[in-house]
Amino acid sequence: MNTLKLYYFFDPLCGWCYASAPVLPDLAEAFPNSLLLMPSGLFSDENARDISPEWAAYAWKNDQRIEQMTGQPFSAAYYNHVLHGDGLLFDSGPASRAMTLIRSIEPTLEHEFLSAIQQARYIQGMDTANAQILGQIAEQFAALRGLDISADQFSAQISSDPSLAMTTKERIGLTQQYMQHLGISGVPMLLVCIHEQMLILHGADLYNGASQLIHSIKQFVSSQNS
Question: Which pLDDT belongs to residue 2?
């Protein structure tokens, strides 16, 4: 693999992935056409669950740790309306399909749409496991970029388009194959590949800002090209 590829492994409902999200725009700018998003399905399908009071307490404790370590905020609206909403699900399947749909419209916008989903959830307190909510986010997101997306149509595709569901399932399956091959179970993670060589970056590598991360990637690329 002679072309530089940056594989970003994530789940759209993962708080630690939200913590690493600020580096993605800088990665996309520093390494054009190299960033590829790899949805892991960590919280979808059989891994989805109801947001019970016990789960909400566990999630909030983890979220507060993330905020203390990385500075990424979790709002009172998120606490009140997502973690303590009525009958909500913790299911990243709809958001993963939404991202795949955005990718089919304009691949370069996928990481920006991920950020929009995360901001809607953790700051605005919107239920991003809900297809109708994701449609609203997509319509507003598209309008700001001169694109025309219907919230109702977008929501319907997330909910009932078999082709979209299959494409998303295939993406998640490929991601899981990569993770199993690498012996990695957690996200976020960034896999840097060039000349058949790999560099794995995660944890503090992704939470401490883009400058050092980009420097590390450039050093790795330079070492492989020398």
Answer: 64
Q: Are strands 189-194 and 197-202 parallel, antiparallel or unpaired?
A: antiparallel
Residue range 177-211, pLDDT digits in tens: 999 999 988 899 999 999 889 999 988 899 989 99
Check if the beta carbon of residue 87 is closer than 8 Å to that of residue 130.
Answer: no
Rounded CA gap, 49 and 54, in Å?
A: 12
CA separation for the pair 179, 184 (Å, rounded): 5
Total-model pTM: 0.96
Q: Is the separation of the CB atoms in 202 and 15 below 8 Å?
A: no
Which two structure tokens, joined as six digits, stand for 143? 């309008």
Domain that holds residue 127: 6-225
How many residues in total does the chain contain? 226
Spans in the chain with pLDDT lower than 50: none
> What CATH number has the domain bearing residue 170?
3.40.30.10
What is the domain count for the chain? Answer: 1
DSSP bridge partners of 192:
6, 199
Task: Let me know if residue 1 belongs to a domain.
Answer: no
SS (H, E, C) 89-147: EECCHHHHHHHHHHHHHCHHHHHHHHHHHHHHHHCCCCCCCCHHHHHHHHHHHHHCCCC
Among all chains, which residue has been given the structure tokens 């580096």? 23
Question: Using alpha carbons only, what angle is made at residue 62 by residues 201 and 69, rounded to the nearest 5 degrees?
Answer: 55
In a domain, 216, yes or no: yes
